Structures are given as C-alpha cells and as structure tokens.
Please model this.
Amino acid sequence: MTSSQPDQAPDAPLALPGYAHVYSGKVRDLYAPLDDSGAPRDDQLLLVASDRLSAFDFILDSPIPDKGAVLTQLSLWWFEQLVDLVPNHVVSTDVPSAVAGRAVLVNRLKMLPVECVARAYLTGGGLREYVADGQVSGVRLPEGLVDGSRLPEPVFTPSTKAPVGEHDEPMPYADVERELGADLAARARELTVAILKRGNEIAAERGILIADTKVEFGLEGDTLVLADEVLTPDSSRFWPADQWEPGHTQPSFDKEFVREWLISPASGWDKASGEAPPPLPDDVVERTRAKYVEAYERLTGRSFSAG
Ligand code: Q0N
Model:
C-alpha cells in the first residue's frame, strides 16, 4: 500500500532495461539511456509520464489509466504547433515497449533555474497578488478584476523551482534577470507569453480556455529550447469555455470530478486533516480518464487510442 504524503515522490521506479533511473518527480520519471559500455549517456534523457494524479497537493493512490499516454501525446502535438516559435527537446518516440506512448527520448539541455509561467486569466496565486497590491509579478493591472477575469495581455509570472514537496514561490523579474542575464530573461519571457497566446488561439476554437501555463526551457548552446511537457492539464489550467464565468473559482477541465468527490461527504476525507486522501471510486477514475481523453481529442482533432 502506498502511503500518500503531501507531494511525496512515488515508490520504486520502473526498471527499464538499457536505462538508468535518474529522477522521479510528482508525475514524471527521468531515465538516462545506457551506452554500449553500459554507462549512462550524458546527452539524452528518457522522459516517462506516469498515470499519477495530484489533487489538493497529494499524489493520489488511484492512478488514472492512460493519463501518462494522453498527456505525452498532447504535448507532442503542441510541440508541433509551436515549432515555428521555439525549438523543442524531442529526439524520438521510439521507446521501450513497457512505456510505449507515454515516454519520449529528449535532448539533455542545460535547464534554466526558473519556472516560466504566463497567465492569461486571473486566478490562484496571481489573483492573491492582485488582491494584495493591484499587480502581478510587477505588472500593474486594471481595477475591478475578479477570480477568472481575462487579463488585457498575458503576463509573465516566473517562479522559483522548488524541490518536490515544496511550493514554487513567485520570483521577481529582477531576480530572473540576475540569474539569467537581461537578454536571456527577456527571451524566456517573450517565448513563454507567445506559447500561451498561441495555445489560447488554438484552444479557443475548440472550447477550452488556458488560464495559465508553466513551461521549462533549457539551453543548447545559446538557443533556448522548450523542454518538459507543454500546454497539458498538468502544466496549465484548462477551463471549459462554455462554463467560463468570472467572479468565482472556475471548474477545472480535468480534476473537477476528483475534487468534487474528495470534498464531498461520500469520501469521508477532511482536506484540513493532513491525512492522505482515500482511493477514488471507479466511476470518478473513469470520468476523469474521459476528461483527459476529451481534452486531447478536442484540441488535436485526433482520436485517442491506447496502446
Ligand atoms: C529535466 N528534470 C528534473 C532536480 C530535477 N531536456 C531536459 N534536459 C535536462 N533536464 C531535463 C530535461 C527535460 N525535460 C530535468 N526535469 C527535466 C527536474 N529537476 C527538478 C528539480 O530538481
């Protein structure tokens, strides 16, 4: 039995012949391909998306079948839609059969020590900053905005990269410039905002709003390269466009049923208790799986088939 703790790393990683496990995050695992002598290569990584789901800062005990594959395929599709804006780290989708569909071989980059976030709509931490002082990440915003309001322009709101189990903290843009230099900081900001704008142009036609997104960049020489996953429900807030109504918390496209059940009396769980949430009922798992598939199919216009 898994013991869920807030944002705890998962149990023993999958053994993949020909690869060495190097790191496990909340929902993704990294491996290094082994060379002919059995040594880990230093130029590539295998990025494996799991079926794990986080809610209320817990990794739930119930995996969502195919979530890792759906998000991997969605990310690959977005990389193609963005390739005229930014190069990406993808090398190949020829991966071990044990992780087929949910893993990507990528170029190993020198990762920027900054979480690059852009917000098109106001909610979460951005809303808290706005309520406190009328600005978000140093950008003054109009008066009268509420939870869910669309911003006049997307805003770059970088954050620190916190270790697993801790929360990312907002990072003043001046600190980003100190870390990266003014030139690289400006390029990362422009690209992050451009990715969110392009994402929303495409998603809007398909009934989804992307409230905000977090992207990760690495360097290949002097070139900024888009890494990790991009514009997925794990890295972004997806909202159903037809239910968008500023003034209250918007329903999450993917996690609505999970959150609704966990806070309902049926779960018997108290969010404030510090206890691990209980396993999800099968129908909540199935309806959540269906939301990931729906997001993929609406956005890409392709049908998702597992395996
Ligand atoms: C990458 N992480 C680990 C340390 C671990 N293309 C890439 N090249 C190099 N590194 C990475 C990628 C990608 N994608 C490394 N995640 C992605 C995450 N960090 C988190 C903080 O602690």
Observations:
- Residues 43 and 123 are 38 Å apart (CA to CA).
- Residues 23, 25, 30, 45, 47, 89, 106-109, 111, 161, 218, 227-228 surround Q0N (CB under 6 Å).
- The domain at 19-107 is CATH 3.30.200.20 (Phosphorylase Kinase; domain 1).
- The first strand starts at residue 19 and ends at 24.
